[in-house]
Amino acid sequence: MDNLSSLLTTRAPTAQRPLLGLTVLVVEDSRFACEAMRMLCLRSGARIRRADTLASARKHLSVYRPTVVIVDVGLPDGSGTALIRALSQGLPRIDVILGTSGDLTAEDAVIAAGADGFVAKPMASLAAFQAAILMHLPPDRQPPGPRMVSRDRVEPDLLAYRDDLSHAADVLDHDDSPQTLDYVTQFLSGVATSAKDADMQDAVCRVIAQRAAGVAPTTGLRDLGRMVRTRLSAAPGL
Questions:
Q1: Which domains, and CATH codes, for the chain?
Q2: Are 96 and 136 within 8 A, CB to CB?
Q3: Whole-angstrom Cα distance, residue 25 to residue 49?
Q4: Which pLDDT band, with edges at 50, 70 and 90, does 86 fall under?
Q5: Which has the least CB within 10 A, 69, 113, 152, 217?
Q6: Where's the Response regulatory domain (predicted)?
Q7: Which helix (H) or strand (E) holds 25?
């Protein structure tokens, strides 16, 4: 570890930067959601590392030990709950383990796997993000004295949303197996929720409903694909 990194990880938290000294590993395949996390960490004083798959997260964790791990439930190579379960049983245990998803029904599975808490997407409130971590830290890791509760919210660049749409389109172009459809619909549902794209969310829900009813989602997938391509061909600011 270089001198600057050592300094950043040993500095005490302050009222303005209550997560100063913490390192957060975000296990998240959505660039849009991860950009929100990056902004929240930056404004809170925490350092952030990112892994976009379970395999990448395990590689990170074999090299260093973060203070906080935030794990998305749906990942390309499996369920985030598997990683949460492994981390919750590990010794020494990670200080704070949180699960996150745009699907609120995932909270029970996250807690059952051993997470300390659940954070729903979209994660935009600075105060809520800080509280979700601080409430699980021991007193000696808390910022001293009173601190003002921020009303600030973060707004990630929509270019990151375009990156997510491009990723989904690329996956669908190469594989339309049931497992891939499960992943892509979950992925697009999460990023559409984070980006507040109601039309995209509705299109994803139609595909999910068709598959749940045992109906081939041909029409729904065609409409969803058309919507993704329309957004990708639009101006960069959507």
A1: 3-141 (3.40.50.2300), 158-233 (no CATH)
A2: yes
A3: 5
A4: very high
A5: 152
A6: 23-136
A7: strand 23-27
